[in-house]
Amino acid sequence: MEPIILASGSLRRHEFFRQLGLPFSIMPSNAKEELVAGAAPRAQAERIARAKVDALLKVIANSNPPWILAADTVIDIEGTVLGKPADRDDAKRMLERLAGREHKVVTALALYNGRTKATDCRSNESSVVFAPMSEREIEWYLDSGEWQGVAGSYRLQGIGGCFVSGIRGSYSSIVGLPLHDFYVMLQENGYGYSA
User: Fold this and answer.
1) Is the dihedral of CA 102, 150, 72, 181 positive or negative?
2) Burial of 94 (0-12, 13-18, 19+ CB in 10 A)
3) What CA–CA distance (Å, rounded) separates 147 from 75?
4) What's the predicted TM-score (pTM) here?
5) Is-catalytic flag, 120?
6) Which of 12, 23, 45, 186 is most buried when burial is the number of CB atoms within 10 A of its CB?
7) 67 pLDDT exceeds 80?
8) Is residue 193 part of a domain?
9) From CA 77, how far away is CA 168, in angstroms rounded?
10) Per residue in 126-156, pLDDT tens?
11) How many secondary structure helices (H) and strands (E) does the chain include?
12) Could you tell me the residue range of the domain that residue 50 belongs to?
């Protein structure tokens, strides 16, 4: 199998690649993850994932990479898109908004194929139900630091899972890499990973 450049610093995405047995190298993209006011959540996530691939291609253009995968996750709560918190106060506002409510998690994947010089981009949408959180619980969670660098200010696979009362959809997508969608993308783009 050809190596895939994973344009992500996410430890969870690295772990998924290791679990899948895919050869990969890590080269986080320097693309800005700016949200555009009024854009739909799927469009936001897909635009950012594609921008990550494009930014990385500019850096390594002369090396002709065979494959690059970038991903982006955003939270959609009643049409408002939440990205990564700017600071603790921003994280607190996000958690207060999510507490006791259901929201959607959109994870987009952008797969660059070096043979065709094309990028395939698609996204997965799953739902998460948050239990109510007291002020004390929110402060306790913020003290953990787990909110840093993640969309919506929580990690389902960590302490944040204590406050999730239900999910609908793909667990792997909620934590950053929709495995089924990724598998289908690899097959449809001619990457040799299948039975």
Assistant:
1) negative
2) buried
3) 13
4) 0.92
5) no
6) 45
7) yes
8) no
9) 15
10) 999 999 999 999 999 999 999 999 999 999 9
11) 6, 7
12) 4-188
